[in-house]
């Protein structure tokens, strides 16, 4: 019988949800049983052999509900292998890879609560129409005009699927 895996995520504009869905598909294709829920709907972790938690990064940190989920379930998470992934537009900036260490530092509070067996770090997507706040939309629009960001989907699906495919080997 395959392992039972729980995947949960915190997303604002759907980008992180898309990554979580891709991870779930890869693990299902590998023969694992997968439950996938937004973090707001996640409850008990009982019965799961492994957990994957993902969050968008905004303002140099995981979304508050993702941090709260990890904090609230820290005891349960200490008994199963945990993988985490982060989706961050900083990595989509020109020369974004030079900011990778800084982005990894932003995840340190999560590492302080769980000891992930694997960490995925992925660029996000920017669709100005999906940014709910007018002020934030305006800031991003100006940043796009200045060349700081480019609109579009910057997720590397091959990288995401490769990372997900390697998870089952880390859970042995």
Structure description:
- With 172 residues, the chain is of the alpha/beta class.
- It has a single domain, classed as Rossmann fold (3-Layer(aba) Sandwich).
- Helix content is 38%, strand content 24%.
- The protein contains seven helices and eight strands, in the order βαβββααβααββαβα.
- The chain has helices at residues 15-29, 64-72, 74-77, 100-106, 108-111, 134-145, 157-170, and strands at residues 4-10, 33-38, 50-58, 61-62, 82-88, 118-123, 125-126, 152-153.
- Helix 1 (15-29) packs across helix 7 (157-170).
- The radius of gyration is 16 Å and the shape is globular.
- The chain starts with a strand and ends with a helix.
Summarize the structure.
With 172 residues, this protein is α/β, with parallel strands linked by helices. The chain is built from seven helices and eight strands; from the N terminus they run βαβββααβααββαβα. Strands 1, 2, 3, 4, 5 and 6 form a six-stranded mixed β-sheet that branches.
Task: From the alpha carbons, calculate the radius of gyration and give it in angstroms.
Answer: 16 Å
State the helicity in percent bands: 25-40%
Order of secondary-structure elements: EHEEEHHEHHEEHEH
Uncertain segments of ≥5 residues (pLDDT<50)?
none
Distance between the first and last residues' Cα: 13 Å
Strand content: 15-25%
Structural class: alpha/beta
Kindly list the characteristics that best describe this protein.
two-stranded antiparallel sheet; alpha/beta; globular; Rossmann fold; six-stranded mixed β-sheet; single chain; 7 helices; 172 residues
């Amino acid at each position: 019988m395959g392992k039972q895996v729980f995947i949960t995520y915190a997303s604002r504009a759907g980008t992180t949800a898309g990554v979580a869905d891709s991870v779930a598909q890869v693990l299902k294709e590998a023969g694992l049983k997968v439950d996938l829920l937004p973090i707001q709907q996640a409850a008990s972790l009982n019965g799961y052999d492994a957990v994957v938690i993902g969050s968008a990064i905004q303002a140099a940190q995981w979304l508050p509900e993702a941090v709260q989920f990890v904090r609230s379930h820290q005891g349960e998470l200490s008994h199963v292998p945990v993988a985490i992934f982060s989706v961050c537009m900083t990595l989509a900036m020109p020369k974004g890879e030079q900011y990778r260490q800084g982005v990894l530092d932003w995840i340190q509070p999560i590492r302080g609560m769980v000891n992930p067996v694997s960490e995925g770090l992925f660029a996000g997507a920017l669709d100005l129409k999906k940014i709910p706040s007018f002020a934030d939309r305006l800031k991003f629009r100006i940043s796009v005009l200045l060349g700081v960001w480019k609109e579009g989907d910057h997720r590397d699906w091959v990288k995401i699927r490769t990372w997900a495919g390697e998870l089952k080997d880390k859970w042995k």
